[in-house]
Design brief:
There is one protein chain. By secondary structure, this protein is α+β, with helices and mostly antiparallel strands. It has one domain: 4-Layer Sandwich (L-amino peptidase D-ALA esterase/amidase), CATH 3.60.70. The protein has a 6-stranded mixed beta sheet with strand order 4-3-12-11-10-9. Strands 1-2-5-6 form a 4-stranded mixed beta sheet, with helices on one face. It has a two-stranded antiparallel ribbon with strand order 7-8. α2 crosses α3 and α5 crosses α6. The chain is globular. It starts with 28 loop residues before the first strand and ends in a 6-residue tail after the last helix. The relative contact order is 0.22.
């Protein structure tokens, strides 16, 4: 079984769902295509390749719209389709995560796949504005070789599944770096109890941000206690810790778009617990959706909606912060050391050294 943060006895607040993943929200599915090939010197167009694509399908095999909202903490990045989410309040299809220079490929592939699945949509009336977001993997990957192709996107879409989610150096997170350790995809969930019912909230991150000396786990300045682990050196004028993070939030709580916006604004509090500062070069962009109200987007008649009162949202705020923190640590724990272009090496988070540091502070959940 893959190692996760709780397997290292790292303590977290809150109660996770069965898989401790975004897929604990019923109907949500996740798929990855991971591209790893070649070693040695960079030859643009040939490799080495360390990249991929991850997709989240909010209603699994059904592509009915969901209420949604988005938020940019720092906008040095890209998430397509957000102006329509802001205007309409709906997310109308899958979410794609990839590298910075493959956003267009993934976006176009999602549209073509949608039309191919339902030829009736190919008439003049059909249009799509997919949500596709990116982080930069050009330290490890031949990013200007454009290795993510349409068939890789289709593979991720059609293999998307519920249940356990692969983490670390997979899919869109394959070539990502987090707090100057190997990063990538991570996920977590929380069971949320309110006065009006019990719900599930899940987070999935593509983590590619942060300085080593800022890394804080379970309230402990872990990064400052790991001076013997080699630091990857950023090329050119990029400052240490440059990068971005994309975070996707799913819930089955009956929330309207303005309430989902409130949740996206709590995501940075979980990011800050790990030492994220939303630096100048960072694209910290978040999207949230609710799988409740399945007929909200129907085109005819007046729709009756369910809405959780604002007064009982505090447990959802807590769950957002808790699951964001754990998802990022899960990404770090899962990712192995990776060697990429020109021998550039990013070390894995050293599990036992992290445990030793937490033990020194009395924070290991033994």
């Amino acid at each position: 079984m893959p190692i996760r943060a709780r397997d290292l006895q790292i303590p977290f607040r809150g109660q996770p769902g069965a898989h401790n993943a975004i897929t604990d929200v019923a109907g949500v599915s996740v798929g990855h295509t991971t591209l790893i090939s070649g070693d040695g010197a960079l030859v643009v167009g040939q490799g080495p390749v360390r990249t991929g694509v991850t997709v989240i399908r909010p209603r699994g095999q059904q592509d009915e719209p969901v209420f949604a909202a988005w938020y940019s903490l720092n906008g040095n990045g890209e998430m397509t389709g957000t102006t329509w989410i802001e205007e309409s309040g709906f997310l109308e299809g899958p979410i794609g995560l990839t590298n910075t220079h493959s956003v267009g490929t993934v976006r176009d592939a999602i549209i073509a796949w949608q039309i191919a699945r339902d030829p009736s949509k190919g008439d003049m009336a059909y249009w799509s504005l997919p949500i596709v977001a990116e982080t930069y993997d050009g330290m490890l990957n031949d990013i200007n070789g454009f290795h993510v192709k349409a068939e890789h996107v289709v593979s991720a879409l059609e293999s998307a599944a519920s249940g356990a989610v692969a983490e670390g150096a997979v899919g869109g997170g394959t070539g990502m770096i987090c707090h100057q350790f190997k990063g990538g995809i991570g996920t977590s969930s929380r069971l949320v109890h309110t006065d009006h019912g019990d719900y599930t909230l899940g987070i999935l991150v593509q983590a590619n941000y942060g300085r080593r000396d800022h890394l804080t786990i379970a309230g402990v300045p872990v990064g400052r206690h790991l001076p013997d682990v080699p630091l990857p050196k950023h090329a050119g004028s990029l400052p240490p810790g440059s990068g971005s993070i994309i975070i996707v939030l799913a819930t089955d709580a009956p929330l309207l778009p303005h309430q989902l916006k409130r949740l996206t604004r709590r995501i940075p509090m979980g990011l800050a617990l790990l030492g994220g500062i939303a630096g100048h070069t960072s694209g910290d962009i978040f999207v949230a959706f609710s799988t409740a109200n399945p007929e909200a987007a129907r085109g005819r008649g007046v729709t009756q909606l369910a809405m959780l009162p604002n007064d009982v949202m505090n447990p959802l705020f807590e769950a957002t912060i808790e699951a964001t923190e754990e998802a990022i640590v899960n990404a770090l724990v899962a990712a192995p050391t990776m060697v990429g272009i020109n021998g550039y090496t990013v070390p894995a988070l050293p599990h036992e050294q992290v445990r030793d540091v937490l033990r020194q502070y009395g924070r290991l959940a033994e």
